[in-house]
UniProtKB/TrEMBL annotation, chain A:
<dbReference type="GO" id="GO:0006357">
    <property type="term" value="P:regulation of transcription by RNA polymerase II"/>
</dbReference>
<keyword id="KW-0804">Transcription</keyword>
<comment type="function">
    <text>Component of the Mediator complex, a coactivator involved in the regulated transcription of nearly all RNA polymerase II-dependent genes. Mediator functions as a bridge to convey information from gene-specific regulatory proteins to the basal RNA polymerase II transcription machinery. Mediator is recruited to promoters by direct interactions with regulatory proteins and serves as a scaffold for the assembly of a functional preinitiation complex with RNA polymerase II and the general transcription factors.</text>
</comment>
<dbReference type="GO" id="GO:0003712">
    <property type="term" value="F:transcription coregulator activity"/>
</dbReference>
<dbReference type="GO" id="GO:0016592">
    <property type="term" value="C:mediator complex"/>
</dbReference>
<dbReference type="GO" id="GO:0070847">
    <property type="term" value="C:core mediator complex"/>
</dbReference>
<dbReference type="Pfam" id="PF09637">
    <property type="entry name" value="Med18"/>
</dbReference>
<keyword id="KW-0805">Transcription regulation</keyword>
<comment type="similarity">
    <text>Belongs to the Mediator complex subunit 18 family.</text>
</comment>
From TrEMBL, chain B:
<comment type="function">
    <text>Component of the Mediator complex, a coactivator involved in the regulated transcription of nearly all RNA polymerase II-dependent genes. Mediator functions as a bridge to convey information from gene-specific regulatory proteins to the basal RNA polymerase II transcription machinery. Mediator is recruited to promoters by direct interactions with regulatory proteins and serves as a scaffold for the assembly of a functional preinitiation complex with RNA polymerase II and the general transcription factors.</text>
</comment>
<dbReference type="GO" id="GO:0016592">
    <property type="term" value="C:mediator complex"/>
</dbReference>
<dbReference type="GO" id="GO:0006357">
    <property type="term" value="P:regulation of transcription by RNA polymerase II"/>
</dbReference>
<keyword id="KW-0804">Transcription</keyword>
<keyword id="KW-0010">Activator</keyword>
<dbReference type="InterPro" id="IPR013921">
    <property type="entry name" value="Mediator_Med20"/>
</dbReference>
<keyword id="KW-0805">Transcription regulation</keyword>
<comment type="similarity">
    <text>Belongs to the Mediator complex subunit 20 family.</text>
</comment>
<keyword id="KW-0539">Nucleus</keyword>
Length: 200, 198
């Protein structure tokens, strides 16, 4: 898989190991989550990066049946906070699930390809190697492309589709309505396997 | 870099500017600081506290967010880029900007050797709430190293406010790095006082 990517992508790749927590603002009926915000940081960060966080808002997908990939709105914000957890809590955000992702990031033009091996902790709040267990032995492949807001996305969507097709049969990208099924249960495990990722 | 002392003065902008110019300061440009409170929607009035979002022209790409607690240390706070404003607007079901309560401080920036002094009028909507002065000593980042110097500066120019030092100047916890958040905290404290004033 890695060799295939190395052949297809721009030279060089970047390793990452991050800890992602998914929060949501529960304002709907029955306190159902309606806005979800992902907060990410380097896992086991060294002092320099210890308090640097990435806030990411991911909107609902565009209802476009013809488009071969999922299109969602994304807003990123780099954030520095000494007590990010308290800060998020006072904003009204509550955590749904968390996981650790380790992998490599590749690029091909403006397409971003990330391979993720996911793991999670068995005891929430404890991140020592003993309690961290892999979620499964699959690799989650994210293929995405960022475009300006309200830009025409058909071209980029086709590019992503074409790129993903070259990874067959290792990765089969399908357009699944995964958010409908899994958003509320909030388990990362069910999202595993090669899933399509929209242009961001 | 830079340590700021923010104070509210009860003289006109003109007289402060004249005072600075007679002491040899030069005008270097305009500045704006805006402080917007984000208030929780009715159903969340208990679990979400009020949040202040501050922008400052010295840090044009940055958004500061402070949720005031009893003191600076205990207030959750963060420094973000401007994307954070957009994320906050997505959370409007839980917290909304209180545009009537927004206070904008705008005016001129003066340089007097290593000091930068910002003099601005605080305006809420169309009402003038007061005059705010920020004295920024740029070469230093540790309060303990320069608080005497800054006190002396304030004594020379704004004599009657010299005793009213910001909390961080009175802290005895040993030398600590000063961050722009400390400046924003001073603005938030002053603005919440100004809002109560009629």
């Amino acid at each position: 898989m890695e060799r295939r990517l190395a052949g297809l992508c721009d030279p060089g790749s970047e390793d990452f190991h991050e800890h992602e927590m998914s929060f949501s603002l529960r304002t709907g009926v029955n306190m159902s989550p309606d806005v979800s915000i992902k907060i990410r940081r380097r896992f086991k960060p060294d002092i320099v990066f210890h308090n640097q966080w990435l806030f990411r808002y991911i909107g609902v997908p565009e209802p476009d049946a013809k488009c071969p990939v999922i299109v969602r709105k994304v807003i990123n914000s780099i954030c520095y906070s000494q007590d990010c957890m308290t800060f998020a809590k006072t904003l009204g955000l509550r955590m749904d699930y968390e996981y650790m992702a380790k992998g490599k990031l590749w690029t091909k033009g403006n397409i971003k390809i990330a391979t993720n091996i996911l793991s999670r902790t068995e005891r929430p709040g404890q991140y020592d190697p003993a309690s961290i267990k892999p979620v499964s032995d699959s690799v989650l492949v994210e293929i995405s492309c960022a475009l300006p807001e309200s830009a025409e996305y058909t071209m980029a969507a086709k590019q992503i589709r074409d790129f993903a097709d070259q990874l067959m049969p290792l990765v089969c990208m399908e357009k699944v309505d995964y958010w409908r099924k899994y958003c509320s249960t909030g388990t990362v495990a069910s999202q595993l396997g090669p899933i399509p990722v929209p242009p961001m | 870099m830079g340590i700021s002392w923010v104070l509210e003065v009860d003289q006109s902008v003109k007289s402060v500017e004249r005072l600075l110019e007679t002491n040899g300061a030069e005008k270097i440009g305009p500045f704006t600081v805006d402080v917007t409170p984000y208030i929780p929607t009715a159903q969340h009035s208990i679990d979400i506290p009020q949040n202040y979002v501050v922008h400052h022209t010295k840090f044009p790409q940055t958004t500061f967010s402070i949720i005031p607690g009893e003191n600076f240390k205990k207030s959750p706070k963060a420094v973000c880029d401007r994307g954070f404003d957009l994320i906050l607007s997505k959370m409007r079901n839980g917290t909304t900007p209180d545009l009537h309560g927004k206070i904008e401080i705008s005016g001129g920036e003066y340089r007097l050797e290593d000091f930068v002094v910002r003099v601005g009028t605080a305006v809420q909507g169309t009402t003038v709430k007061g005059i705010v002065v920020e004295v920024d000593f740029e070469p230093c980042a540790v309060v303990a190293q320069c608080k005497e110097l800054m006190t002396e500066f304030i004594k020379t120019i704004f004599a009657k406010y010299a005793d009213n030092r910001p909390d961080i100047f009175n802290s005895n916890e040993g030398p600590q790095n000063y961050t722009p958040l400390d400046t924003m905290w001073q603005y938030v404290t002053i603005v919440s006082k100004l809002r109560k004033k009629t």
